[in-house]
Amino acid sequence: MRHRNLALLSAILVLALIIPPEQVQARCVESTELSDFVRSTYEDEIEFEVIRNGKIVGSHRTVFSHSSAGLHARSTMQLTVTLLFIPFFDFAYDSHSTWCDEKMVALEATVARNGVLNSVSASSDGVTTLVQSGQTQLAHPATLIPTDHWNPAVLQTSHVLNTITGRINNVDIVQCPATKARTLGLSLPAGTECFEYTGDLTATVWYLHERWIGLAFQGDDGSDIVYRCRDCRIP
């Protein structure tokens, strides 16, 4: 019996070595609800102007693609604040997440704040998500949705992966008056829904038919940061 078990294990290892990864991940190539949603809602990208206290200071862009590993979302943000035309604050963000069967399976994010770098990585087996940020490792007993906002499924969760800090944030997400956008200088279409994050993370986000179209939060210095849709393909 022992020899039979060893033979079976050897056969499994051989198959694992000879089957190409693209065949192992073939199930992610097939159409899924999330992939279909992205194609019909965002097509291949979504872009925002980043506004600080009423002045455009940068941009945020998320680009979508598909491969044998699943759905990919690449989010980048560049923000530069100047004083008398001299830059005194610079922020750059780059995040790449991979999704299979509606769940995030991998993420790599890098943040540069005035040249100081921090990286966040995460991987999930569908049951547990492992997060690494600097020398800190965390394990969460569930799949997580990162704070990139394009996936409206985040509205149904109470835990999010903060891709800037690498922390798992406990949040409550509740609806708020859509008219709040006007107080921040945003003009949004009728039918837009407003949601507020409270708890470990505070922010206001807007969706139109589950399409992400706006974001507002306070910067570390108390300034008002607003995302205004530049190319959101709003009907």
Summed over residues and divided by their number, the pLDDT gives a mean of 84
Helices, by number, come to 4
Structural class, from helix and strand content?
A: mainly beta
**What is the CA-based Rg, rounded?**
20 Å
Assembly classification: single chain
Secondary-structure element series = HHHEEEEEEEEEEEHEEEE
Number of domains: 1
Q: Could you give a short account of the major beta sheet?
A: 15 strands, mixed
Strand content: over 45%
Terminal Cα separation, in Å? Answer: 65 Å
- Tell how many strands the DSSP assignment holds: 15
3D shape: globular
Helix content: 10-25%
| Low-pLDDT segments, ≥5 res | 1-26
The strands making up the biggest β-sheet line up spatially as 8-7-6-5-4-3-2-1-15-14-13-12-11-10-9
Describe this structure as you would to a colleague:
This protein has one domain. It has four helices and 15 strands. The protein has helices at residues 2-18, 21-24, 33-41, 180-183, and strands at 45-52, 55-67, 70-83, 86-100, 103-113, 116-124, 129-133, 136-140, 145-146, 159-161, 168-176, 193-199, 203-208, 211-218, 224-231. A 15-stranded mixed β-sheet has the order 8-7-6-5-4-3-2-1-15-14-13-12-11-10-9, with helices on one face. A hairpin with a 2-residue loop joins strand 3 (70-83) and strand 4 (86-100). The radius of gyration is 20 Å and the shape is globular. Mean pLDDT is 84; it is low at 1-26.
